[in-house]
């Protein structure tokens, strides 16, 4: 019974970390895309 809860806790932590890292990369990708768009706009003006 104890090992089941340990496995459950480990998978929950791994899932949370995976979501956090995925979200972080998504935000960084969006920021980089916005920076490129801003550069293109300023060059066009």
Automatic annotation (TrEMBL):
Keywords: Membrane, Transmembrane, Transmembrane helix
Domain of life: Bacteria
Transmembrane residue ranges: 6-28
Name used for this protein in its record: Uncharacterized protein
Organism from which the protein derives: Sphingobium yanoikuyae (Sphingomonas yanoikuyae)
């Amino acid at each position: 019974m104890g090992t089941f809860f340990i496995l459950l806790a480990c998978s929950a932590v791994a899932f949370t970390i995976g979501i956090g890292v995925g979200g972080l990369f998504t935000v960084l990708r969006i920021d980089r895309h916005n920076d490129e768009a801003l550069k293109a706009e300023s060059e066009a003006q």
